[in-house]
Design a protein that fits this description.
about 180 residues; alpha+beta; 12 strands
Length: about 180
């Protein structure tokens, strides 16, 4: 194996994280009569009971203060067909103009992408400050899930898709790995 690390911990960390494939989500909230959203990959399940997610938000992001104040958010897991929404929610457009793209529904005041792979609405149950980011823990209050599974993934600075492994690779029965993940 050829090591391409530079010895600069921050640069090497960023390089290593480019090898971590992640589903792209739109994190959305509403506060003071306006909808706010951003694209993110720093989303993770925490526990199934109670159903809880975490999202990591840079304190400089436009959604940071409104999310702290509203204490509610949605995690909209993107489908391959949503690739055009990522630049829009990553700074190409600002504020409410972002929601002119895609089909949005209202879930008790929180904007939810109507055709997301899955949309999970959460109440903030806790927060932790780590470096430049806040980690928001969200207790899930409602879930919408679409039948087709074709997530938009981000890897090494570009969009990718998932694919099934060849049948030669033995998969682990669901009962065996269920306890590992949840």
């Amino acid at each position: 194996m050829q090591d391409i690390a530079s010895g600069d911990l921050v640069a090497d960390f960023k390089l290593a994280m480019r090898r971590l494939t992640s589903t792209i989500s739109l994190i959305t909230t509403a506060h003071a009569g306006r909808r706010i959203g951003m694209a993110a990959t720093a989303v993770q399940s925490v526990t199934a009971d109670p159903a809880t997610l975490l999202v990591c938000i840079n304190r400089n992001a436009s959604i940071s203060v409104p999310l702290q104040e509203s204490r509610r958010f949605a995690v909209n897991l993107l489908h391959l067909s949503h690739a055009d929404l990522v630049p829009i929610f990553s700074g190409k457009l600002k504020d409410e103009a972002r929601f002119d793209h895609g089909t949005w529904e209202d879930d008790e005041g929180i904007p939810v992408l109507a055709d997301a792979q899955a949309a999970l609405v959460c109440d903030v149950s806790g927060m932790a400050a780590i470096g430049s980011h806040d980690v928001f823990f969200g207790r899930v209050t409602s879930i919408e899930v679409r039948r087709e599974v074709s997530p938009l993934l981000y890897e090494d600075g570009r969009f990718v898709r998932s694919t099934n492994l060849p049948n030669k690779i033995k998969s682990v029965p669901y009962d065996d790995w269920q306890s590992i993940f949840f």
